[in-house]
Design brief:
The structure holds 2 protein chains of 2 kinds.
Chain A lengths: L2 H13 L2 H13 L9 H10 L3 E4 L4 H19 L15 H21 L4 H32 L4 H4 L8 H18 L18 H4 L5 H23 L10 H25 L8 H20 L1
Chain B lengths: L1 H29 L3 H28 L4 E9 L2 E7 L1 H24 L8 H20 L3 H19 L5 H30 L15 H16 L8 H7 L2 H26 L4 H23 L4 H28 L3 H36 L10 H4 L1 H14 L6 H18 L3 H32 L6 H4 L6 H19 L1 H16 L3 H5 L2 H29 L3 E4 L17 H11 L1 H4 L2 E5 L10 E5 L3 H18 L10 H21 L1
Helix pairs in contact in B: 1-2, 1-4, 2-3, 2-4, 3-4, 3-9, 3-12, 3-18, 4-5, 4-9, 5-6, 5-9, 6-7, 6-8, 7-9, 8-9, 8-11, 9-11, 9-12, 10-11, 10-16, 11-12, 11-15, 11-16, 12-14, 12-15, 12-18, 12-19, 14-16, 14-18, 15-16, 15-18, 18-19, 19-21
Classes of the chains: A mainly alpha, B mainly alpha.
């Protein structure tokens, strides 16, 4: 591991909280409002890290360990994740499977922490989370299989090493599938609404209803990191050439992430949430797009 | 090498010999000295398992290969025992789990009260000895005799509780296992026909590989519990005492996998459709298996269905391995076989853990119905901690052992997808199946852990539960530790697999080339654990100077929250079970609210096993009706039965003299 390799995880840790800021800013502008400052999440994190705590008497160590387990999973995921043309710090054949299962462990930690409160609201959110994960995971892995077949490599760094122009149609299909996954995994509209305050209709927000203080800071920071992690899988599909200078590659990758955030903000501004019962259909749609992409790469 | 094998086999034979002797001693003492009976049986079991475990470990690490033949006067039978990496590998989880279950059983039966512990230990030790013999046998007759003792001993253990439901479960198990055995007898007869010998070494497929493979799949598949032959699993496993459920699910069903793999070795070349059939079985056992697990409310029934699912994962790995052999893709073959075998070991560890944990819960609360539990993590912290680890391990989450085996199978399937043609299609089947199984397993085990251990207790029984005795918690915690160790130590585990995989795939090149991967995995797991610990420290430092208070869970300001208002297990999985109604075919009755002030409202949902309801129950009714014609043979008088025996013996004697 060299110094450049650790640059990407470090940049993600520091810059990820900007992404929700960008999304909220775009949404506000589209609605004709001024909106919160770009750095709002940084202020929130700073505030939360210095707060005292109130815990439910029902909860146990699982509730307290959940947010940090979720956070650490995303940190380790950043170690094996390339951003655009920046290679990952650690790369090996099959690291894409580890990535999928790190997201699984993060989900397990969040769901277990939610169930620890014994609240119906959080149980409901957890139930929806595991239901939707059932559809996102195959879609993600099929898409990864398509990319692996196209590049002939089983590591994320190898898969995203360069941009194959010849696979344009397949990339378009996979990209749209991944974009739906990106929205679903990050609990954005049209799957979930991060701004709602109705417990009955929420998924992610309701699972973390009882968290406060440092734990909630880990959760918010973790959500920003998840935008980065799942976004990076999509950014790799965007056209960009390796320049040979890691800092420049990283800057290009980050710019694409900001573009993705702007796109998310636009989607959230022009779309409504789909009904809960319709969400599986949307996610199966993502799976179908991935499968079509896979078929095209075999063509 | 051969010399080593002889020594190890004799040591093993002595260890196995201890088992029936101490079992018989337990039976003898059982009538009048219960304590002495339990001590004799337990001591023998633990001693034999400790010795056996280290012999198996030595056999595997040194790749010992060899056999011994002792005289045994039986037609076509020989006391031929052999040790090779495959046998050593299957012996490892056997002795490990049986030893820990024996320690657990000692505590478990303390509260059994008034019944003869000698009976339990007699059959338990016979079960352990016969399972070891099955894995060591190199002669068809010896194998079948050991197989039969194994089935009978486990039958008597299933019916140990002697209730109406356990007796029914026992009968279902007995019928299923003997139907399987019938296919095995046919298989062995066919294999022995060519050379006229029941010695494994002389057996050849000889052109009938397809038929022989089918017979092996049916015979061994009934023991493994492949769908739709799984019907006995959800009956027998919950009915048996918990240490027995752990052994049955952890190692007994694996003897079927062992038999299947041994047959693959003997048959050599299996037709390509065999690989596809295994992949199909894997998908069909795996996905409905975990769906049915999801819909259960009996904790042990849930675990039993999940065993079927995990054997499906093993079948996926084996199928991929065979496909790799067929398409000359050594990397796919080696990784597929390695994943399948490692999953056998891993499943023994975490399923043994989960069954023992379920047993501790059932003893502490008096119920296995999850909807009546809750909040046990506070009351049984050690059992809960171990169960948490087991639940994460069975969901194949890093850094635990389940991840490593599923990782190997996943990499095998991605490797297959790099190619084109049939092998890539196989890879796609495995990727989709494993991803779906993984998602459903996460739902299933967050439900099991969440409903049983988290939230508030739903009944007074759950509220009054206390931590189980040390003899119960120590084996459970040890298994949890092993789940972690085999995950973090992935690099050593995969190295240990190389000799077995070489035996199956004929090459170890691919695995050896991949040895950097487990090392990197181990490293990343350590980073994961260290990171979580570091963050715990940061959190503690940040909260040290602040006020930390406790209150109730946020309830939207509702004034009188009650434990019954919590989300139930059934409602947690309702979106999934509702979506899978076509497979599950849940039957529900409900009483709708009537009038302005409805007095009673109820809803009951049952999920009867679909294979049993649609296929086996009608089949057996039909067979039963057909056999009614022979009812006149059952006179009910002992004289006639003695006469039948004499006539049968005379006929056999005549036949023997004639030929």
């Amino acid at each position: 591991m060299n110094a450049a390799a650790i640059l990407h995880p470090l940049a993600a840790l520091l810059l990820a909280p900007l992404l929700p800021g960008v999304i909220n800013r775009v949404k506000a502008r589209m609605a004709g409002r001024e909106g919160p400052p770009l750095l709002q999440l940084y202020y929130d994190l700073w505030k939360l890290l210095r707060k005292g705590a109130v815990y439910s008497r029902t909860t146990t160590w699982v509730f307290r360990a959940g947010p940090r387990l979720n956070f650490v999973c995303l940190l380790v995921a950043l170690l094996i994740l390339p951003l655009g043309r920046v290679p990952a710090a650690v790369s090996f054949a099959g690291d894409l499977v580890l990535l999928a299962y790190l997201l699984g462990l993060a989900r397990f930690a969040t769901v277990a922490a939610a169930l620890d409160t014994g609240s119906s609201f959080e149980g409901m959110g957890a139930s929806r989370e595991v239901q939707f994960a059932l559809f996102t995971e195959p879609a993600l892995l099929i898409g990864m299989a398509a990319l692996a077949h196209a590049s002939g490599d089983l590591s994320l760094t190898g898969i995203y090493a360069d941009w194959p122009a010849a696979l344009m149609p397949a990339m378009a299909l996979l990209g749209s599938g991944f974009f739906i996954l990106f929205l679903a995994e990050n609990c954005r509209i049209p799957v979930d609404d991060p701004a709602t305050h109705l417990e009955l209709t929420m998924i992610h927000e309701v699972m973390v209803l009882d968290h406060g203080n440092v734990d909630y800071a880990f959760i918010l920071w973790g959500s920003a990191l998840k935008l980065w992690v799942v976004g990076a899988l999509l950014v790799g599909l965007f056209p960009a050439a390796a320049t040979g200078c890691p800092l420049l590659d990283l800057a290009v990758g980050f710019l694409w992430l900001v573009v993705l955030a702007i796109l998310t903000g636009l989607v959230e501004s022009v779309m409504a949430r789909v009904r809960l019962l319709r969400v599986p259909q949307l996610l199966v749609g993502a799976g179908v797009l991935s499968t079509l992409g896979l078929l095209l790469t075999f063509w | 090498m051969n010399h080593d094998a002889t020594i190890l086999l004799f040591v093993l034979l002595w260890a196995i010999g201890i088992l029936p002797i101490t079992g018989a001693a337990a039976l003898w003492y059982g009538r009048w000295a219960e304590r002495r009976a339990a001590a004799a049986g337990q001591l023998g079991a633990v001693l034999a398992c400790v010795v056996g475990f280290f012999v198996a470990l030595a056999g595997l690490t040194r790749a010992v290969e060899g056999h011994i033949v002792l005289p045994w006067r039986t037609p076509a039978g020989e006391l031929a025992l052999g040790l090779d990496p495959l046998s050593s590998f299957f012996l490892l989880p056997l002795f490990l789990l049986c030893g820990l279950a024996a320690i657990y059983a000692g505590g478990y039966f303390k509260t059994w009260g008034g019944r003869n512990p000698g009976r339990f230990w007699f059959f338990y030790n016979a079960l352990v000895a016969s399972m070891a013999l099955v894995i060591l046998a190199r002669n068809g007759v010896l194998f079948l005799v050991a197989w039969e003792i194994m089935s009978l001993a486990s039958f008597f253990l299933v019916v140990m509780d002697d209730t109406a439901s356990s007796r029914e479960a026992g009968w279902i198990y007995l019928v299923a296992t003997h139907l399987g055995a019938a296919f095995l007898i046919a298989l062995f007869a066919l294999l022995g026909r060519a050379e006229g010998s029941q010695d494994f070494a002389t057996w050849r497929a000889g052109g009938a590989a397809g038929l022989l493979f089918t017979l092996a799949l049916l015979g061994f598949g009934a023991k493994v519990g492949f769908f739709p032959l799984h019907v006995w699993l959800p009956e027998a496993h919950p009915a048996a005492p918990s240490p027995v459920s752990a052994v049955m699910s952890g190692v007994l069903i694996k003897t079927g996998i062992y038999g299947l793999v041994r047959m693959l070795l003997i048959l050599g070349e299996v037709p390509a459709w065999g690989a596809w059939v295994l992949l199909g079985i894997g998908a069909v056992s795996g996905i409905p298996g975990i769906l049915f697990a999801l819909a259960q409310r009996d904790l042990k029934r849930l675990l039993a269905y999940s065993s079927g699912e995990n054997m499906g994962i093993v079948a996926l790995g084996l199928g991929l391995g065979l496909l790799g052999l067929h398409y000359q893709s050594p990397a796919v073959a080696a990784l597929g076989f390695a994943g399948a075998l490692l999953h056998v070991l891993n499943h023994a560890l975490f399923k043994g853990l989960l069954f023992m944990g379920a047993g501790a819960v059932a003893q502490a609360t008096g119920t296995r119905n999850m909807e009546q539990l809750g909040g046990l993590l506070k009351r049984m912290p050690l059992t809960g901690l171990a169960f948490f680890a087991g639940a994460a391990a069975i969901c194949a989450l890093p850094p635990l052992n389940g991840f490593v085996s599923e990782f190997l199978i996943f990499v095998a399937s991605f490797q297959a997808l790099l190619a084109t043609g049939g092998v890539a299609l196989g890879g796609l089947v495995v990727v989709v199946s494993l991803a779906l199984i993984g998602g459903l397993a996460l739902a299933c085990f967050t439900k099991a852990f969440g409903v049983v251990f988290q939230g508030e207790p739903r009944t007074p029984a759950a509220a009054g539960a206390t931590e189980a005795a040390a003899s119960l918690t120590v084996p459970i915690l040890l298994l949890a530790g092993l789940c972690l160790a085999l995950g973090v130590g992935a690099v050593h585990v995969v190295r240990g697999l190389v000799p077995v995989v070489t035996q199956l795939a004929g090459t170890d090149a691919a695995l050896l080339a991949a040895t950097r991967v487990p090392a990197v995995l181990s490293g990343l797991f350590l980073v994961l654990i260290a990171g979580a610990l570091a963050m715990a420290w940061v959190r503690r430092r940040l909260l040290a100077a602040r006020s930390v208070r406790e209150t109730v869970t946020w309830d939207c300001g509702y004034a009188a929250p009650a434990p019954s208002m919590q989300y139930t297990g059934a409602s947690f999985v309702q979106p999934l079970t509702h979506g899978a109604q076509a497979i599950l075919q849940a039957q529900s009755r409900q009483q709708d609210p009537v009038g302005i002030f409805p007095a009673a409202v109820s809803r009951t949902a049952e999920v009867p096993d679909v294979a049993r309801r649609v296929f086996f129950d009608p089949l057996f009714r039909w067979v039963g009706a057909g056999l009614g014609w022979f009812r006149w043979v059952q006179e009910g008088r002992v004289h006639f039965y003695v006469l039948y025996i004499v006539v049968a013996l005379l006929a056999l004697l005549g036949w023997a003299l004639w030929s």
